[in-house]
Design goal:
single chain; 166 residues; mainly alpha; Four Helix Bundle (Hemerythrin (Met), subunit A); two-stranded antiparallel sheet; 7 helices; elongated
C-alpha cells in the first residue's frame, strides 16, 4: 500500500498528483479556464488548479482517521501559509509524509483490516481509507491535467502516448 500511495502522489511519471501540480505554470495556478463549455463545467467553472490542489489536503483528515485519534474536524485542518504553489506543495508533502509514516508504523499488514472511523463517522477498514485517499490523488491529478489543458487551449494530448515519460 505504501508503494501505491507514493505512486499516486509522487512517483508515477504520468499520473502522480505532485508531478502534475508541479507542471503548472505560475500564471495557470490560480485562474479559471477561459475556454470552457457549459456541458463540461456548468455555468460557472469555479475551481482553479490551486483550489483543486487545496482540496487534496483532505489527506490530513484521512491520516488522522487511519492512524491518529480520529479527532480532527474538517474546519480544523490547518491550511498552508499561502495559496502560493510552493506553500501548497510543501503542505501536501507534509500530508503525504503523515500517511507514509502511518503506514510504516504498522507492525503487520493485518493492521490494514483494523476498523477505524471514516471522515463521515462510520466504521471503515484502515486499508479502505488508504485506498480512498490514493484514488483521490489520482482523480484530482487528472482533473488538474484537464484544467491545465483548458487554460492552455489544448486537448491535453500533446505528447505521443507511446513515448517514454519525461
Amino acid at each position: 500500500m505504501r508503494r501505491m500511495l507514493d505512486q499516486a502522489y509522487r512517483n508515477d511519471p504520468w499520473s502522480a498528483l505532485r508531478k502534475n501540480i508541479a507542471s503548472v505554470n505560475p500564471d495557470e495556478w490560480d485562474i479559471r479556464p477561459a475556454g470552457w463549455t457549459v456541458d463540461e463545467f456548468g455555468t460557472d467553472p469555479e475551481l482553479s488548479i490551486c483550489d483543486i490542489a487545496l482540496h487534496t489536503g483532505a489527506k490530513y483528515m484521512y491520516a488522522d482517521r487511519a492512524f491518529g485519534d480520529a479527532s480532527l474536524e474538517w474546519g480544523a485542518i490547518k491550511p498552508p501559509p499561502s495559496r502560493g504553489m510552493e506553500d501548497v506543495l510543501a503542505w501536501l508533502d507534509e500530508a503525504q509524509r503523515l500517511m507514509m509514516d502511518g503506514l510504516a508504523s504498522l507492525d503487520d499488514d493485518a493492521r490494514l483490516q483494523d476498523e477505524r472511523q471514516a471522515p463521515w463517522r462510520t466504521p471503515m477498514r484502515r486499508g479502505a481509507l488508504i485506498a480512498i485517499i490514493t484514488n483521490h490523488d489520482l482523480y484530482h491529478s487528472g482533473e488538474i491535467n484537464r484544467q491545465r489543458a483548458l487554460i492552455r487551449g489544448t486537448t491535453g494530448w500533446d505528447r505521443d502516448p507511446t513515448s517514454n515519460p519525461p
